[in-house]
Amino acid sequence: MPTKLIGCATRMPLILSVLGGEHSDPRFHQRQQLLLEWLPHVEPFILTGAGHLLHVEQPTQLANGLSSFFLRHPSGVAAQGMASGDTLEMLCAELPR
Predict the structure, then answer these.
(1) Integer Cα distance of 17 and 14 in angstroms
(2) Which of 18, 82, 83, 96 has the smallest number of Cβ neighbours within 10 A?
(3) Sign of torsion, CA 61 65 71 74?
(4) In this predicted structure, what is the pLDDT of residue 51?
């Protein structure tokens, strides 16, 4: 992630969930760790017993985990006034410095 986008992402008021499977390739775990370090409002969600294809291997458990996340954090992107077509650069330009 380019440095200016990392700085922007750290100011975003969104709570994010970083998804992963317990048996995913180690490279995915390394990337998840970077996101946890870079972004202040991130919740890790590692699905026990799953690989990288969470939605195929354990769809019910994934749906339950996502439902739980959205119930705890109902505001989401729409509540923050962000449109689905917005790019990260567009959102960064609107955030306070």
Answers:
(1) 10
(2) 96
(3) negative
(4) 92
Distance between CA 73 and CA 94 in Å, rounded?
22
The ranges of the chain with pLDDT < 70 are 1-13, 75-97
User: What CA–CA distance (Å, rounded) separates 44 from 78?
Assistant: 22
How far is Cα 48 from Cα 67, in angstroms, rounded to an integer? 17
**62 HSE (CA, 13 A, CB side):** 16
Residue keyed to tokens 């960064």: 92
- What global pTM score does this model have? 0.63
> What stretches of the chain show up as alpha helix (H) in DSSP?
3-9, 26-38, 54-57, 59-72, 76-79, 88-94
Distance CA 46, CA 65 (A): 9
